[in-house]
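Input structure tokens:
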């Protein structure tokens, strides 16, 4: 137990945080005594609130005598006072059913994970596509005629990744011609990484193990561009959802007080910038990928200045030593941490299960109980 934090002070700190998260209003001693029927006087509670403020766990706003939690207060709450909760069985069944309706569609899983996280926590969500522990590796290609001058290329990669690309044909080609070219390239380039295919493409024609037609060489160039785009996106892409949910929080609603209104508008601007560009979030992704369990970064614990008024709850998901991504929620430090943590933990577990099934392996990313 931290120095000075008696059992009574811990109990009062817990109540202050719970009340502030629920109401978004500074918490006064009289309100605590009345609502929670405490067996001590308001004066005693005021003394304890003052002590908690002196210890750095609470502070007060200039407009009110009530107290609000500090980042240190939230941190102590998360690590020592918070009740470990789980989503209800009904919620778990509903969420799992939604995911299994889009079984095998990785892009849809990512979008659904973001939507469920945002809706369940009432904050913004973020999900990064899972990144392979090894480089992207080509598996096969299929060409489907759309009409005389266009075909659809279906590119399949290891890890259940499928990309589609339209191809303009230089001349009318029969479905059999398209199938034959796709089969030749699938056999020729199977199991190769982007670097390997680029190396193959760079060889002089006379050194190519397989004589490619101009059409087939164009297909290989298209494949290279698709793989390059995918790898660039996998390094930079952060799917976000829940902007409306987060901006409905009181922190983003301007009041009639000019200073408070300006502060709310600035928070709004920063929130839009963070979710639009991923600024401030990108540095957290490698940190979470290297960790187990749920990671909680509160306010000033963020290294980026623009993140100092936000808390982030993140977890890694995926298949151990094969593929992994990051998902979680971001919102004001006045966050319902038990709900956010249990939701992030459950969705990361579910996504790991789905990817393990897709890979047909048992090495899902361990959940753990880490809270850092």
């Amino acid at each position: 137990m931290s120095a000075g934090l008696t059992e009574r002070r811990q109990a009062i700190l817990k109540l202050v945080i719970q009340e502030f998260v629920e109401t978004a209003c500074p918490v006064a001693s009289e309100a605590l005594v009345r609502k929670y029927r405490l067996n001590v006087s308001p004066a005693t509670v005021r003394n304890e609130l003052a002590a908690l403020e002196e210890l750095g766990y609470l502070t007060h706003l200039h407009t009110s005598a009530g107290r609000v939690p500090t980042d240190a207060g939230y941190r102590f709450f998360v690590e020592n006072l918070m009740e470990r909760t789980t989503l209800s069985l009904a919620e778990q069944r509903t969420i799992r059913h939604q995911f299994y309706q889009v079984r095998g569609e990785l892009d849809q899983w990512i979008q659904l994970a973001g939507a469920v996280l945002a809706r369940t926590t009432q904050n913004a969500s973020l999900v990064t596509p899972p990144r392979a522990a090894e480089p992207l590796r080509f598996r096969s290609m299929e060409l489907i005629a759309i009409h005389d001058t266009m075909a659809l290329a279906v590119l399949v990669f290891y890890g259940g990744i499928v990309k589609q690309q339209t191809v303009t044909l230089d001349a009318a080609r029969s479905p059999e011609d398209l199938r034959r070219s796709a089969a030749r390239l699938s056999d020729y380039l199977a199991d190769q990484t982007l670097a390997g295919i680029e190396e193959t493409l760079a060889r002089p024609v006379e050194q190519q193990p397989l004589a490619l037609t101009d059409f087939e060489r164009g297909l290989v160039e298209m494949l290279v561009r698709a793989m390059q785009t995918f790898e660039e996106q996998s390094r930079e892409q952060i799917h976000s959802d829940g902007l409306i949910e987060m901006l409905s929080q009181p922190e983003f609603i301007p009041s009639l007080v000019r200073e408070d209104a300006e502060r709310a508008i600035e928070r709004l601007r920063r929130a839009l910038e963070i979710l639009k560009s991923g600024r401030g979030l990108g540095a957290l992704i490698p940190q979470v990928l290297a960790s187990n369990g749920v990671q909680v970064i509160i306010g000033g614990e963020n290294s980026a200045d623009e993140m100092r008024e936000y808390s982030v709850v993140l977890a890694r998901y995926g298949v151990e030593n094969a593929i992994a991504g990051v998902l979680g929620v971001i919102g004001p430090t006045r966050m319902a941490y038990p709900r956010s943590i249990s939701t992030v933990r459950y969705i990361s577990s579910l996504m790991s299960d789905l990817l393990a099934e897709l890979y047909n392996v048992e090495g899902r990313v361990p959940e753990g109980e880490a809270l850092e």
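The CA atoms of residues 132 and 323 lie 4 Å apart. The longest helix spans residues 214-236.
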